Amino acid sequence: MRRIHLIVAFSASAALTLAGCGRDDGTTAGGDGDAPAQTGEAVSTEGASGELEVWAMGAEGEALPDLVAEFQDQYPDITVNVTPVPWDSAHDKFVNSITAGTTPDVAMVGTTWMGEFAGMDALDPTPGSIDAGKFFEGAQDTTVVDGTSYGVPWYVETRMVYYRTDVAQEAGFDEVPADQAGFKEMAAALKDAGAEYGISLQPGQTGSWQTVLPFAWSHGAEIASEEGYTFNTTEMVESVEYYGSFFAEEIANANPPEGQTEADFTSGNVPMFISGPWMMSIVEDFAANEGEDGFAEMYDVAPIPAGASGESSSFIGGSNLAVFQNTESRDAAWALVDWLTQPETQVKWYEMTSALPSVQEAWEDDALTADDKLAKFGEELQTAQAPPSFPSWEQVAEAFDGEIEKVAKQGLSAQEAMDAAQAQADSIGTGQ
C-alpha cells in the first residue's frame, strides 16, 4: 500500500492554510448559475513552440522539472524553465510581477487567488478546447470568476472523518453515523467510553472555516450568492450552533495543545478528527515510531455527516494551473497545461508527489484504487465544494474564523457570531 505524504498547503494565507475553491449554491461567484463558463480563444497545440517560464510552489516546484522533461520529449520545440517559489512569499511575488508586467507564462495558482488575479486582468481565459467536464465539479468551479474560466484544476484534496475503529466498537459503533445527530452521539459516546475527548475540532483561528463549512454545506447552507456573502441564514446559524455544541458540552477541547492530533489519535485519547488524505501517512508513521505495528488496520475514514440536506459535502482544496496574459507563447503555454491534466500525467504526478488528481478518470487507475481509504476520498470529492471565488474571500474568511473562535472559546451564540460575520463581510464586500 502506497503511503500518502504531506502535501504543502495551497492557499495564500499567512499560516498557509489550504486554499478554498468556489461552489456554493450551485453557481460560481459572479457566474450565471448553470450556464457554462465563458472560455477564451482557441489555441493550436500541435507543433507549438516557444520558451516557457513556469512558477510552482513548495514540493511541486521541486518535483515539476522531472515531470516536464517528458513533456519536452513530446514537444521538442518548447523549452520549459521551472522556478520553485516559496509559499510564504508567493502571493506578493505574483502581485508584484503583475504590477510590473513580468509574470511567468504558466503558474501554479492557489485557488483563493483566482478572483484577485483575474480581477487584475492578469490571467488568460481557458481555451474552449480543454474539456472542463473531466475535472471534479467543485475543483472546476474554482477556476471561474465572473462567469469566465481562467485556468484548470491541477490537483485536489478534501476532508473526511478519521476514527479509531477499535475504540468506536468499544463505544458501541461499528461505523460513523451518516447523520449529524448520530455523529454527535458517537463523539459523546467515545468520551463516555474513556476517551479524553470524543473528537478533535478546530476551535476557530486561521483556517477553521475549512472544518466548519463542510458541516454547514452538508446541512444545506449557502455562504454566498452571486450578489455577496450569506452567513446569517437559518441553515448557517444552525450549523454553527451545532459545531459550537461540541465545545459547550466538552465533547471537543476548546483549547487543544498544538501539534497533538497524531499523538492523541494513536493513543486513543481523542479517537476522532477531521482532516485531509495526507494525515494517513502522518498517523501511521507516528504510530510506527511509537512501536505500534499495523496501525493502518486500527482506523478508517468516513464522509462528513449530513444534516438537513441529506448529502455529505466536504471542502475541496488544491491548486490550479493558469496562463498569464503577458505570455508570448500562448499555444505552448496551454499545450503544457493540457498535458499536465491528461489522466496518465496526473497519475504520474500522484506517484511522484502524492498530489491527488483533479481529473476524475485518473482515479480509475490502480495507483489510486488499491488503497481503500484513499478511494473513499475520491468518492467524497464528487460532492465537495468550497467558498466563492470572490477576491475578498481570504479577508472575509479571517473574520469568519474569528467569530468561530468566540463561539468555541467564549460561548458566543451562533446567531450573534453569524450576524457579526455577515456585518464584516458586508463591510469588506466581494472585491469585484
UniProtKB/TrEMBL annotation:
Residues 27-46, 411-432 are annotated as: Disordered. SUPFAM superfamilies: Periplasmic binding protein-like II (SSF53850). InterPro entries: SBP. One of its GO terms (biological process) is maltodextrin transmembrane transport. GO terms for molecular function: maltose binding. Keywords: Signal, Transport. The keyword Signal applies. PANTHER family: MALTOSE-BINDING PERIPLASMIC PROTEIN, MALTOSE_MALTODEXTRIN-BINDING PERIPLASMIC PROTEIN. This is Carbohydrate ABC transporter substrate-binding protein, CUT1 family.
